[in-house]
Amino acid sequence: MRKLAALLLAPIVLAGCGAPEQPPSSPAAAGSVTGAVTVFAAASLTETFTQIGKDFEAGHPGVRVRFNFGGSSALAQQISQGAPADVFASASPANMKQVADTGAVTFVRNKPQIAVGKGNPLKIATLADVTKPEVKLALCAQQVPCGAAATKAFEVAKLTPKPVTLEQDVKATLTKVKLGEVDAALVYRTDVSAAADDIDGVDFPEAIQAVNDYPIVTLTNAPNAAGGKAFVDYVLSEKGRQVLTTAGFDAP
Amino acid sequence: MRAVRARVPVALVIPALIGLAFLVLPLIGLVIRAPWATLVDHLSTAEVGEALRLSLICATSATAICLVLGVPLAWMLARTEIPGRRIARAFVTVPLVLPPVVGGVALLLVFGRRGVIGQYLDSWFGFSLPFTTTGVIVAEAFVAMPFLVIAVEGALRGADPRFEEAAATLGASRWMAFRRVTLPTVAPGIAAGAVLCWARALGEFGATITFAGNFPGTTQTMPLAVYLALEQDPDSATVLSLVLLVVSVAILVSLRDRWIGARA
């Protein structure tokens, strides 16, 4: 009931900003979310959020969800420079803190995994194997959550990795394995499952200590706050959560 | 005469001034927002030095490659009548208009470890270009070479071919005529082309990060460092940008007499 009230009120509050594309007085707008919802989400959420976006649009006729997927650090930077986003879903609390101090909710967790070429040609079995000099390794840059998770994992294992490249987001890192340019990369388990046709994943015990929390928030300066809130609610709902857990994300 | 010239149409002046402001304001913003107090600290960090050194080495090497391959290519386009010359010229201009990141993808598909040519480099010589400094040079040369070729070809077309013909009638071979007559004539054009090519290589981002990856000291050139620093430490990004701005202005000043001054 409170949710409904918020949805009813939001267009009226927003009317002052001139943001909604439909006039709030029209009967169609009352009680429904309208216009475009802009979601900035971590690259590792590309597949799941695209699916959730489609489901959300199906349940809210007339609403369009637009995504900007990228490294959480790059997205946080864009938002703090004034990018018109309604929702931010980050792959780490650190990048969330750059744009929102309060209000963010952890909606999933994700574990790092070693991505290797199909059939694991170099027989990589442990985290120590990827630090061998003959193994070409790609990592995410330190400021991106998957890079921070990798650093943590290597610290726990007391290993010093020798990556050949530090990529700007997890999908770019994964692509280097897909193309065969590197032999191994540290990405998230969910990224490996999403690309299971081209690559294999290798679990390692230290991953448990490098788990990332994913927070999501409706931004304070959201041009479409009602739409943003409805989307966040949908992600947190049973249906949204199911898409995420099916893809290999852990419930918080 | 003076009175007529003084009446400048407002319809032209206003958009002109807006256009000028549009081009100049972002640069002024960069200078205003630069963390002057901590500038020296930022500049003296190891990362900045490494990125700057790598950028200069790669841009200079790429320019050298472009000179060795590009000047003969420009000569072929300007002075020969071989079949397919017009198609060749069209191909030379493609990297000019191609988004550099597309160039990076294309390079990856050809010279990558599984690429059309790269797979043989890897299996025969155990050598692969991505993630190496050589890879950065290749990416920069790919993007920058058209600038040199177009500039030199333009200079060659502007030069009178009768001097070469005269050299030929005096018994000089075509190679001799090229070396002793053509090259000295178009030297200013080559110099201007080389500087433009070098500047383009110095600023290269898309093809480099796509093809050569990003690792400090090996493949992280200044533009990549700026891009990644912006996410973590905007002040560093501003300082790095300022360095690139200074280098670019220095190039412009060095070109002033040769290139801009010549037309003014």
UniProtKB/TrEMBL annotation, chain A:
The similarity comment for this entry is: Belongs to the bacterial solute-binding protein ModA family.
Q: Note the superkingdom of the native organism.
A: Bacteria
Q: Which InterPro entries match?
A: ModA, ModA/WtpA
Q: Which NCBIfam families match?
A: modA (TIGR01256)
Q: Where is the signal peptide?
A: 1-15
Q: What is this protein called?
A: Molybdenum ABC transporter, periplasmic molybdenum-binding protein ModA
Q: Name the keywords, alphabetized.
A: Metal-binding, Signal
Automatic annotation (TrEMBL), chain B:
- Keywords assigned: Cell membrane, Membrane, Molybdenum, Transmembrane, Transmembrane helix, Transport
CDD domains from the entry?
TM_PBP2 (cd06261)
Give TM regions: 12-34, 54-78, 90-111, 131-152, 181-201, 237-255
This protein's membrane topology, according to the annotation, is:
Multi-pass membrane protein
**Residues annotated as domain ABC transmembrane type-1:** 52-255
Main location, first listed in the record: membrane
InterPro entries xrefs:
MetI-like, MetI-like_sf, ModB_ABC, NifC_ABC_porter
**Which cellular compartments is it found in?**
Cell membrane
The free-text function statement in the UniProt record for this protein reads:
Part of the binding-protein-dependent transport system for molybdenum; probably responsible for the translocation of the substrate across the membrane.
Identify the PANTHER family for this entry: MOLYBDENUM TRANSPORT SYSTEM PERMEASE PROTEIN MODB
The family classification in the record reads: Belongs to the binding-protein-dependent transport system permease family. CysTW subfamily.
Write the protein's name: Molybdenum transport system permease
Which organism does this sequence originate in? Kibdelosporangium persicum
